[in-house]
Here is the input.
Amino acid sequence: MTVSAGAVFSRRRCIRGCSTTHRYPTFRGVRPSLLRDMIKCATLVVLLGLVGCGDNHHPDLAPEFSSPRIEMTMAEDGTLAIDATASDPEGRALTYEATAPQHGTLSGTAPLYTYTPDAHFVGIDAFTITVSDGVSSIDIPVTITVRLVDVAPVADGQELATPMNLPLGITLQATDADSATLTYAIVDWPAHGVLGGTAPDLTYTPDADFQGSDEFSFSASDGFVTSDIATIAITVTQCGNGITEAGEDCDDGNTEDGDGCGHTCKIEGCGDGIVQPALGETCDDGNRNSGDGCDASCHTEVVCAIGRCS
Here is the structure.
């Protein structure tokens, strides 16, 4: 109770000449006789803290956190450390409980968490951490923005083979997690042959009569990031040595045509561009299409156009 200057309330009377504050450990009401004395005082201010009957302690104070919420940003497919350490004004031990995020997982030991988003998730995820001192509690909303990260393409190396003096068709291979359109660049060119065509569809032609190992390397780009370098290893085999090696269909010990195994160690047949009378061919134009003068069986055919036949 506080009495203004000029009079001070005591338990029995007003005392003039000063201002005094009386504090009572536990307020249980005012006796009628004291109430009459209060009315005589000039000004009376009564400050009361309402507590339970017989309770001589102040109300519990809730835990405190440094900010009303947690807002953080992270990269796609990464991990994020979250410190939700709170304090209690009365020094009470705190417990933590977090709801499950919709697009990721939480690990670690409270109040130190690790958030891991779902694979390739991009967007906003949210959850709540509740902090309690056993009497009062607070909720800490957590919002995490997962931003897109451009993942580099993956270029694939290959091991290929081709007979000596025979061109080899090669399709460069690479994948991109974001399904972007890829472009290709040759990093190191072959030492014993030449490359033609437009990537990813290339043709490797070994140098004349070269036999052995050759290679070249390339990279792939999605327009923003570039892959690691991949290597294409090529073995140029010696056709005609009697050994069927990688890239050869046959090897009869020679490089003569017309004996069933051609000079490129490929099995001879209609459509290989080589006329082989022993196989009954009268023509071979490199394909097995009819209507072009050499039919699908490599026999000469009559082609008529505008009334004229040849």
User: Anything to note?
Assistant: The chain has four domains: 2-45, 70-147, 154-237, 270-310. Confidence is low (pLDDT under 50) at residues 1-20.
